[in-house]
Amino acid sequence: MRIKTSKYILEVDYEKTKEYYTNAQQYECECIYCKNYIAAASGLPKETKEFLEILGIDYMKIALVSKLYADENKVSYDCYCRIAGWIMSNHAVEKRTQDNRVYYVRVVEEIAEMGIFFHDDRNIFYDCHDFPDPCFEMNFKVFLPWKLEKREELQ
Ligand SMILES: [Zn+2]
Q1: Which pick of 2, 52, 138, 146 has the fewest CB atoms within 10 Å?
Q2: How confident is the model over 42-69, as pLDDT tens digits?
Q3: Which residues contact 88 (CB under 8 A, 6 or more apart)?
Q4: Ligand 1 geometric centre to CA of 64 (Å)
Q5: 94 — phi, psi (to 5°)?
Q6: Ligand 1: distance of its center to the CA of 101 in Å?
Q7: pLDDT tens for the 155 residues of the chain, in order
Q8: Rounded to the nearest whole angstrom, what is the distance from the C-alpha of residue 61 to the centroid of ligand 1?
Q9: How far is the CA of 65 from the centre of ligand 1 (A)?
Q10: Any residues with CB less than 8 A from the CB of 135 and at least 6 apart, and which?
Q11: Residue 44: its H or E element
Q12: Separation of 72 CA from ligand 1 center, angstroms?
């Protein structure tokens, strides 16, 4: 399945991605922020949930959830997950370091109320047990409200 956004062209294997997430375990972490993600994620915007479903991703079973910042009303999260398929093209900007090594500036775009970028650099993939190859990673940022009672660890 070909997916075109304004900055990426992706070839997504929906069946393989869907199969992986159907069989995967729910995301688990003991920290208060991740527990809040689990408690609040069903309240993600409809558009966000629909886009994740188009790709075959289950937002309860992603590879990593990381808190970016929080106040008393909401938390912003940086989320990582794997998708079966490959990136056909992107608009990543190639740059060079002073010693002439190549690196790419990540291209973030707003899709379905998320800040998203895709990459296929295996050196920085988050662990995703037995994810089928070929695959690439999606990073997305979302806001969720506080759902947990306990906020004393909030900082
Ligand atoms: Zn955590």
Answers
A1: 2
A2: 999 999 999 999 999 999 999 999 999 9
A3: 2, 9, 10, 11
A4: 8
A5: -80, 130
A6: 34
A7: 999 998 999 999 999 999 999 999 999 999 999 999 999 999 999 999 999 999 999 999 999 999 999 988 899 999 999 999 999 988 777 788 999 988 777 788 999 899 999 999 888 888 887 899 999 999 999 999 999 876 655 54
A8: 13
A9: 7
A10: 82, 83, 84, 85, 86, 120, 128
A11: none
A12: 18
Q: Which two tokens stand for residue 112?
A: 């379905």
Q: Which residue has the tokens 């886009």?
A: 51
Beta bridge partners of 102: 96
Where do we find the tokens 């079973």?
A: 61
Please report, for the chain, the start and end positions of each structural domain, with discontinuous segments joined by +.
Answer: 2-145
Output the pTM of the full model.
0.88
Quote the tokens at residue 26.
Answer: 């729910």
